[in-house]
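Write out the 3D structure for:
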Amino acid sequence: MMILALILFAVTYVALLALPKYRAYIALGSAAIFVIAGILPIGKVFGAVDWNVIMMILGTMGVVSLFIDSKMPALLADLIIEKMPNVKWAIIALALFAGIISAFVDNVATVLMVAPVAVTIAKKLKISPVNAIIAIAISSNLQGAATLVGDTTSILLGGHAGMNFLDFFVYHGKPGMFWVVQVGALVSMFVLLALFRKEKETLTAMERQKVTDYVPTYLLVGTVLLLIIASLLPKDGVHPFVVAHINGLICVTLMLVGFAYNILKTRSLETVKVTLMEIDYFTLLLLAGLFIVIAGITEAGVVDAISAAFVSVAGNNIFIIYTLIVWVSVLLSAFIDNIPYVATMLPVVGGIAKQLGIDPTLLYFGLMVGATLGGNLTPIGASANIAGLGILRKEGHEVSAAKFMKISVPFTLSAVTSGYLLIWLLWR
């Protein structure tokens, strides 16, 4: 069964890379085969899907659609055009802006917020938005590991290791993940500057766009604040369903608030209908299918077998085990969703540390750097990448894996290498 699951998994991801227009159908078809073949029991299918992530993406898409209609992204684009001398610096500014937001908000939500600004700039200058949105996606993935609320994997680490929001800044008297990520961000920004050195089109200041409605902006800011607050609130006495789905519930609720506001304002359902039509259901179906596929290979023991190989290969050499955890995580996360991978590996890494009699923080942080940043290598390695490419597809741009990786590979390798070295120096 394990061999069959591994073969099916490999075929699935090759197809996903080769046929980007059909990724949702490939993922759902593969998920169906995993169930039909008996690899994943049908009773576990519903639970395999991370509904918190699905709801969060759905809700954010709705709020962002209203945000775009309010003309606020166009105003932000005008402000950036005024301050930046050329396209290269505009892309860097957007990537940094996305990174700042992503340190406190899920990186998929960040891409959905910031990408419309890049699209608006590209339309005004009549250039391709591809490079800018790829930079935004990979920058948001990088910074997602900086704080407890930045990414689902960070939330998983916090829950497993008992870490709170401030522990990501200073942990046991030493610099935490936040500072490791910032060093990686600094190094990778120089990489982006080199990659986009030829993007010298001049940005010409234009008349500033007037915002038609500030309520969607308030909803978007409210989403950010509520996600942060939710991460800090005590969970004792709260229903388990609410604890597990709080981010998704916040995003969907604010989307519904936006719908209700528009219905009361316009006395019509037209805006709601348009917004529902603009939601990228293709991306939602793709993610749902991938969650089931990953659950299938986990059920078959493929992930456990890979995890067990760490100890058997490295023995008791801490440096080798640490190196394997980082770089094998980079490789695996380039092709599989890092949420189930991190969820599976956290107890494994904790067990390895216990066997070796060492502080598990070194291995925990190494896992985070490898698994979170490693997703940047390929178009399907992280949900934010999928969301970014989904936006480009809606704008008529199909991005090949080669085009994406021309930017993502040097960016990722520079960020991971700097994080890998810094964590070893701080926590060995």
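DSSP finds 20 helices and two strands in the chain.
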